[in-house]
C-alpha cells in the first residue's frame, strides 16, 4: 500500500522547539464541502455552466485530512498553535455541514475543548467556547449532543461563576452555555439550573450604585450583556408558568439598565424588555404593566436621544433600535424583516424569532445562510421544513442571463445612488438638531 504524500512541513516543529505554523482554514477550503453538499442550494445567479469539474471524493479526503490535523494540534504544547487550530476548526464548522466527520470524533473534540477551557488562557478559552457552540450546532438536538453538554456544561458554569477568571473568557462561556443548553436540553431541571447561573451574573447589574448620571459602567458590563442575552434565549423555550414567574421578577428591574452608559447594555435591555412584553401578552391577553407611562417616557427619550457627547453612529443605532422597542411596548407591533438564503425566504415577524436568529447569526457569521439551507436543526428551529433540494438542471433553468443580470445591477445601482443623494440633501437642508 503506497504511503500517503507528506502534507506541508508546516505541521512540524522547527529548530529550538518553536511553535508549529498552522495553516488556517481558508475560503478555498470552505468551498470544498460547499461544492459537494450545496449544489442543490446555490443561488441561481451564481450557477456557472463552464466551471471546471471537481473530484468531490478527492477534495473531501483532502478536507478531512486537514481537519484531522487541526484536531491533533488542539493538544499541542504551544498555546498559539492550539488557538490557531481551534480557530481553523471554527471556520470549517461554521461554513459547512460535517455531521458524519464530527460524529466519529465528537469525544475527541469534546475532550480537546474541555482541556482548552480548563487549562488555556483567555483567548484560547474564548476560541474553545466558540467551537463548543458550533459543535452542538452541527450535532443538533440528540443523545450525542446531550453527552457533549454533560461534559462541558459544568466546566462552562465554573468559568462563568469564577470572579477571578478573565472577563472575555467568562463572556464567551456564558454565551456558549446558553446556546448549548438551548440546543440539547430536554431536562427541565438542567434548563432552570443554567438560567439560574446566568441570572446570578446579569442581576448584579441591577445592584450597581447609581449616581446622578444613571448606572455607571464597569469592566464586567460585557459579561452582564452576554449573560442577559443567553438567559433571554433560554426564556423563549421555558414553560408558560416559568415565563410568568420570570416576567414578574425582572420586568420592573430591567428598565434600570436603560440608564447604563454602555450602548450595548442599553440595547440588550431594550430588546429584552420588548421580548418580555411579547411573551407576557401571549401568555395573558389581559396583561397590564403598572409603570407603563414611566417606561414609555424612557424608551421615547432613547428613541430621540440627542446627547452631543455620544457618537453620531451610536445615536443612530440607538434611535433605530428603540423606535422598534417603543412600538413593541406601546402598539404591540414588530417591523417584519425578510432573510434570503438561496432560493428560499424567511420572515422574522416577532421578537422571539429575532432573538434566536441574532444569536445564531453571531455564532455562525457568514455561514448562517448556508446552515439555514442545509442544517436540519436550524431549519427545525425556524420551522423551514426539510432542505430544498435542487438539481443542476433545475438551477440551470433558473439561471438569469448575464446581460439581464448586468441591466438589473445597473438599475439597482442608479436607484440606490438617487435615494442616497436625496437623504444627503435632506440632511444638508434640515441639519441635526438632536
Automatic annotation (TrEMBL):
<dbReference type="InterPro" id="IPR011989">
    <property type="entry name" value="ARM-like"/>
</dbReference>
<dbReference type="GO" id="GO:0030154">
    <property type="term" value="P:cell differentiation"/>
</dbReference>
<comment type="subunit">
    <text>Interacts with PSIP1/LEDGF.</text>
</comment>
<keyword id="KW-0221">Differentiation</keyword>
<dbReference type="Pfam" id="PF04836">
    <property type="entry name" value="IFRD_C"/>
</dbReference>
<feature type="domain" description="Interferon-related developmental regulator N-terminal">
    <location>
        <begin position="34"/>
        <end position="330"/>
    </location>
</feature>
<dbReference type="GO" id="GO:0005634">
    <property type="term" value="C:nucleus"/>
</dbReference>
<feature type="compositionally biased region" description="Basic residues">
    <location>
        <begin position="1"/>
        <end position="10"/>
    </location>
</feature>
<comment type="similarity">
    <text>Belongs to the IFRD family.</text>
</comment>
<feature type="domain" description="Interferon-related developmental regulator C-terminal">
    <location>
        <begin position="375"/>
        <end position="428"/>
    </location>
</feature>
<dbReference type="InterPro" id="IPR039777">
    <property type="entry name" value="IFRD"/>
</dbReference>
<feature type="compositionally biased region" description="Acidic residues">
    <location>
        <begin position="50"/>
        <end position="59"/>
    </location>
</feature>
<dbReference type="InterPro" id="IPR016024">
    <property type="entry name" value="ARM-type_fold"/>
</dbReference>
<dbReference type="InterPro" id="IPR006921">
    <property type="entry name" value="Interferon-rel_develop_reg_C"/>
</dbReference>
<keyword id="KW-0217">Developmental protein</keyword>
<dbReference type="InterPro" id="IPR007701">
    <property type="entry name" value="Interferon-rel_develop_reg_N"/>
</dbReference>
<feature type="region of interest" description="Disordered">
    <location>
        <begin position="1"/>
        <end position="59"/>
    </location>
</feature>
<protein>
    <recommendedName>
        <fullName>Interferon-related developmental regulator 1</fullName>
    </recommendedName>
</protein>
<dbReference type="Pfam" id="PF05004">
    <property type="entry name" value="IFRD"/>
</dbReference>
